[in-house]
Amino acid sequence: VRLNSKYPKLPSKFGVESSVTFTMTGKKEHYSVIQYVNTETVKSFIETATDTYNAIARMPRNLTFLNMGMGAGFLERTVLLYGKVNLESVEWEEQDILFYPLREHLGVKADYLCNSIFNENFEIYECNQRYDYIIATRFVPLNHSNANLKEVKEILNRFKKYSDKLIIIDYYSNYATNVRKFFNSIQLPQLPTKKLFDHWVLDLSKV
User: Fold this and answer.
1) Burial of residue 117, with CB atoms counted within 10 A of its CB: 0-12 exposed, 13-18 middle, 19 or more buried
2) Number of helical (H) and strand (E) elements in the chain, helices listed first
3) For residues 74 and 3, what is the distance between their CA atoms, to the nearest angstrom?
4) pTM for the model
5) Separation CA 172–CA 182 (nearest Å)
6) Quick one: the chain helix, strand, coil %, rounded to 5?
7) I want to staple 53 with a disulfide (CB 3.0 to 4.6 A). Which of 31, 63, 78, 147 is the partner?
8) Cα angle at 92 between 193 and 27, to 5 degrees?
């Protein structure tokens, strides 16, 4: 996968075998890893990261962002290339190691690790600050295959320790109708871009 000269050509193998084995354990929390086997999906991740960067780079420079579930680090790579955005990132401790080869190739790393977002005592380890926005791109724990409205609200409440605002970047169709209606009811103005696909900016204080 190579979109332009700014992105190095991705290695032919980056832990795919480990990812597949991990996913096949049957734990629903690991299903998202299988996406990285599909090169077209990886290409779309890079395109989304670029579009996300272009949107948040138009916002005031003093704002801070936390990328929740950084995965391979495509957004971080884009920030590394172009700057102008105060971004830190976190990955779930159980999946973090799977992304090491890709992140090393892209020259990025996670700032923090966390336990499972499904854990009532969710914690981002050693993170003692709050951010203006949390970014959750295709954040699988929130979509309809993993969470109903009650569970979605529980997850959003766990985010509130770290920010009052959440940017969800994902296809609207990935969410149950009642979840979409709830998101619409606490929605803030969308990001300053016409290119970025489906997204919400949520006011977590209203959850």
Assistant:
1) buried
2) 6, 6
3) 12
4) 0.84
5) 12
6) 40, 15, 45
7) 78
8) 110
Q: Tens digits of per-residue pLDDT, 99-149?
A: 888 888 889 999 999 999 999 999 999 999 999 999 999 998 888 766 799
pLDDT value of residue 20: 41
Q: Is the pLDDT of residue 3 over 70?
A: no
Q: Which residues contact 106 (CB under 8 A, 6 or more apart)?
A: 7, 8, 72, 73, 74, 76, 77, 80
The answer to whether 167 and 196 are in contact (CB under 8 A) is no
Q: What is the total residue count of the chain?
A: 207
Structure tokens at 23: 């996913």
Of 8 and 95, the one with more pLDDT: 95
> What pLDDT shows up at residue 19?
43
| 88 burial via Cβ count (<10 Å: 0-12, 13-18, 19+) | middle
pLDDT mean over 141-161: 90
The neighbouring-strand residues paired with 124 are: 114
